[in-house]
Amino acid sequence: MQYEINLLRLMSALSFGSVAVALVSQYVFEMQPCAWCVFQRLLYILIGVCALGLTLASPTRARLKVGSVGICAVAITGVVSALYQEKVAANTFSCAQTFADQVMTKSGLDAAVPWLFGIYASCMDARVKLLGIEYAWWSLAMFGVLGMLALLALKKRLL
Prior knowledge:
Layout: H1 2-27, H2 35-56, H3 61-87, H4 99-107, H5 109-112, H6 114-117, E1 129-130, E2 133-134, H7 135-158
Antiparallel strand pairs: 1-2
C-alpha cells in the first residue's frame, strides 16, 4: 500500500504545483486567465485535495481504489477541458456562457476567491505560450500524467 500512497503524494504535489505555476504566470508574468484556465485550476485543486486526503485519512484498499477512480475521472475531465480550450474556446472572442464560465460564476468561486479563480481574459486573449507550447497543451499533458498515475495506483489494487 505504500506504493499507492507515494503515487497519491506525487499526484498531490503535481496538482498543487500546477496551480502554483499558473499563479506565478498570472501575477509575475501578467498572463491573465480565462474561464477555461481557472476551471482547470479548480480541477487541479480537486485532484490535489483528493490525493492528499487519501494519504492522510487512514487509507484502506477500498478508499484507495475509489479515490484513484475519482482522480482518474477528474483528470479525464481536465484533458477534455484543455483540449476544448485549445481547439474551440481559444478561437472565439469570448468564453462567456461556456460551461467553464458558468461553473465558475454560478459556484461563486470567481467572486469569493478572485485571486485564484477570477476570470480576467477572453479565451483568445489568454492563448499564450510557455517554452513555445501553448498553456492548454501543457495542462492537457499534466492531466494526462495525473490520470496515468491514478491508473497505476488503481492497477496495483486490481492485481
